Each structure stands twice: as C-alpha cells, then as structure tokens.
Amino acid sequence: MIRSETPQERDVARDQRVRYHQLLEDMERKACAMRAQGSSEEDIARTLVKMRNDAKDIVRSGMTPEQVAELEARNRKKYGNPLGPTADQLYLKYGSWEKVSEAATRSNEAVDHELGLEFHHCSCDVLQAGP
Q1: What angle, 0 to 180 degrees and rounded to 10, lies between the N-to-C axes of helices 65-79 and 41-60?
Q2: Which residue of 28, 43, 72, 90 lies most exposed, with the fewest beta carbons within 10 A?
C-alpha cells in the first residue's frame, strides 16, 4: 500500500508509524516494570498483546476508512479478529510466553524500511534510565 501513496500520504503514514513506535516503547517500559514487580511471563505477554492491539487501534484512528477496512479484513481472515492475533493464538504459534512478548513488541521491518524508519528494542536498564 505504501508504495502507491503520494508523498503527502507517505508523510502521514510515516508520522503514524513514528507514533506506533512510541507506543511500542511504552510497551517495553511496561514489560520492564512488570518484570521488576515479579509478574509472570504469561501476564506480561497478555498485557503486551492487549497493548499492541490498543496501539493498532490508536494508529488506525488516523487512517482513512478504506485503509482501516483493508487491514481489518486481512486480520479477520487470518486471525478472526480485526486487530490481530490474541495472546493465546500467539502462544500456540511461538510456544512460550517470552516469545509472545517479543512478538508483541516487534515492528514490521519492511513497513519501517519503506518509510525510512528503524525500530530498536531497548533493554530494561536503558528504558528505566530514561533520556
């Protein structure tokens, strides 16, 4: 979709993707805080999957109805859910809650590359230290 967009549409898409990256960073902070509090990996993974789906919903609010419909149709067909896979579906796919957490905070590299972006995961030490 991105390749067929006008330069102005790509600028909007890039801004939306930057916002999505910020939400992924929030998710990583949350995971670090939960680990520090002694939460189980399952609880962390379930929280992150919910946060990821919320992030998708937030970012999609800035898209056209046609763009949202296309993304939701793909996800309904693939996962039975307009926002994407559930935590249980990801657990069945990856086999561990740790891998579900990793998947929940991963960004699509192809989309990022197309928009000239890169997403870097941070360690809990870096996230807790702040800017």
Answers
A1: 150
A2: 43
Cα→Cα distances 130→3, 94, 123, Å: 35, 31, 11
Q: Within a domain: residue 130?
A: no
Residues of the chain with pLDDT under 70: 1-5, 122-123, 125-131
| Domain span holding position 23 | 2-125
Question: For the CA atoms of 99, 87, 26, 53, what is the dihedral angle to 10 degrees?
Answer: 130
Q: Which pTM was predicted?
A: 0.82
Q: Please, are residues 16 and 111 in contact by the beta-carbon 8 Å criterion?
A: no
In a domain, 49, yes or no: yes
Number of domains in the chain: 1
pLDDT tens digits, residue range 47-63? 999 999 998 888 888 88
Distance between CA atoms of 41 and 104, rounded to whole angstroms? 13
